[in-house]
Amino acid sequence: MLTIYDHMVQKQITGLSLAFIEHGEIQRTECLGVLEIGSFDYVNEETIFNACSMSKLLTSILVLKLAEQGKIDLDEDINRNLLSWKLLESEHTRTKKVTIRSLLSHQSGIVDPADSFPPLHCLAQWLSMKDLLQGSTPYCQSPIVSTLEPNQKFHYSDAGYCIIQLLIEDVTNTPFSSLMDDLIFQPLAMHHSFFSSSLPVAHTASGHHRDGTRTIPSHPLYPYDAACGIWTTPSDLAKLLIDMMQTFKGKGKLGLTAPTMHQLMHAQGCN
Q: Can you spell out the DSSP letters for the chain?
């Protein structure tokens, strides 16, 4: 019978970190391998990994928290609250408006432009969401527009979550990462979770290709926090998952209600 280590060798996986949940608690963790091919720095419980689009789950929970606080309406036209940039009206939004709910569920009618949202080329090119959505950066060279009527079709969209990030910052006048820290990370003691803009150097796993070689850069940074900027650990993500389960029992530390969490866990909009 093959062990986890055997599978790592077969798949050329350099480092691996696991957290096991049982009966609503983290029962144990397991760490294997090293931070970077050829190094002797071993993966441990505090090793931070690029979790990329798992950011979207965190963003969804943050949005629901703000909705329960009355700061955001899931079903309101997003242009009513966007201040620094507006989604251009089109034939597709004449009768149905783009809402946060449709953005969260990738059913807003917004399709990512080709070859958009790559890793950051260099820290000096850190960009604003307004510039990105206007199509004036190397990371998204076309303006973000509606190409389909909302709630008609599923299209996985990083751009949609960039709009959510900008709307949150416009409504609260607070950086997205600060809100996430105050409302999600701190209450759940997720002390090893960061966004690309504040990523620590220590205990950070390198990126590797499928053939086991190191990526260049070794720590790809995505300047789209809400869409794919999260760096975290399995144990921190487990804390979030446990709190989601506890919410259905009325015991969640984030203070969300069971009906709100129910919306997150069930299908929305079209099929």
A: ---HHHHHHHHT--EEEEEEEETTEEEEEEEEEBSSTT---B--TT-BEEEETTHHHHHHHHHHHHHHTTS--TTSBGGGT--S--PPP-GGGSSS--BHHHHHTT-SSB-PPTT-S---S-GGG---HHHHHTT-BTTB-S---B-S-TTS-----HHHHHHHHHHHHHHHSS-HHHHHIIIIITTTT-TT-EEGGG--STTBPPPB-TTSPBPSSSS---S-HHHH-EEE-HHHHHHHHHHHHHHTTT--TT---HHHHHHHHS--S--
